[in-house]
Amino acid sequence: MQEAPASSKAPKRPGRVLLRTSDLTKSFGSFQVLKGLNLSVREGQVYGFLGRNGAGKTTSIQILMGIQKADRGRLSWFGEFRQRPGVVEKQQIGYVSQEQFFYPWMTCRYLGRFVSRFYPSWDMTYYSQLLGTFSLPAKRKVVNLSQGMRVKLALALALAHRPKILILDEPTAGLDPAARREFLDIVSYQADHEGRTTLFSSHIVEEVERISDRVGILREGRLCYQGSLTRLGDLVRQIQLPEPFAPQAPNRLEALQREARLRGFEVLQKDVKHGSLVMRAEPRSWHSWQRDHQTVESRLSLEDIFLGLTVERDLIV
Ligand SMILES: Nc1ncnc2c1ncn2[C@@H]1O[C@H](COP(=O)(O)OP(=O)(O)OP(=O)(O)O)[C@@H](O)[C@H]1O
């Protein structure tokens, strides 16, 4: 196992809440995707919205953007409760969807002029600068751009009106590792140097770890964790029976699992072969556990924590 996932980012002072959802629910037919989503993003934060494929990230973001309607629940943008963001709110949001639909015959520069009509705060000089920074040829037509260039173009279009918040829906899907890294560096630069609040969704743990201050992990229609990466590393740990395993090790593991549950630990994974349990509890519960047991305890990588938190619950007996 890799060492603990301390975020590489220095902690920031939290600002006011720009975006909040309360108990959002959404079903498609009999399938309930969101079962009470409570999410909050504060000014200046880079919020990584993590979930496995099909967890409901795009559905959530589309509700935030007013593209889909929630069945129940409340949504607040910039401190005001709304059913969906209105024109004024949308003018303060930069949104990059999972797929980009641009008029293929427009050049990058022309597209900027076209989109500028929707945003009173559009800054054409800044847009031209962004095209330069992202190495996008202003005179090239969209049809002749690579996938990576299109995503960067979408980001330039989302940034040129200097939005209060950027919403990115799996923006790096379909990018190669170099393009992905370049894109994340741009988002990170925007956050650090322009104070740009950002919510971005992903199922790639490594990229969330790279740039986020705060994460929300979506499981079974709800956030099973929301907070800093450092705190997450404190909550979820692995315990291991001391080696060599005695023949009664499986029984001992069973007993530990039962006791952990009684003490309020959430058992996330059990590995009988290696004599280990992955569990979640508050730090004070971990302290008392350490006091009372001889088990070897280790921190996990964010990827292992993510897998532990999002695994199907009924796989653990
Ligand atoms: N319009 C729709 N009609 C029916 N089911 C839908 C619709 N949109 C989404 N779903 C279902 O809702 C679930 C969540 O989809 P969503 O696209 O929000 O997940 P996601 O977390 O963004 O997934 P991915 O990481 O694969 O993009 C999926 O099971 C999907 O099939």
Can you give a write-up of this model?
With 317 residues, the protein is α/β, with parallel strands linked by helices. The chain has two domains: 17-231, 3-Layer(aba) Sandwich (Rossmann fold), CATH 3.40.50.300; 233-315, Alpha-Beta Plaits. The protein is 34% helix and 27% strand. It has a six-stranded mixed sheet with strand order 6-7-8-3-9-10, sandwiched between helices. Strand 12 (266-271) and strand 13 (276-280) form a beta hairpin. The longest helix has 18 residues, at 177-194. Mean pLDDT is 88; it is low at 1-8. Bound molecules: adenosine-5'-triphosphate. The site of adenosine-5'-triphosphate (ATP) has 12 residues, from helix 1. GO terms for molecular function: ATP binding; ATP hydrolysis activity. Pfam families: ABC_tran. InterPro entries: AAA+_ATPase, ABC_transporter-like_ATP-bd, ABC_transporter-like_CS, ABC_Transporter_VariousFunc, P-loop_NTPase. This is ABC transporter ATP-binding protein. Residues 19-245 form the ABC transporter domain.
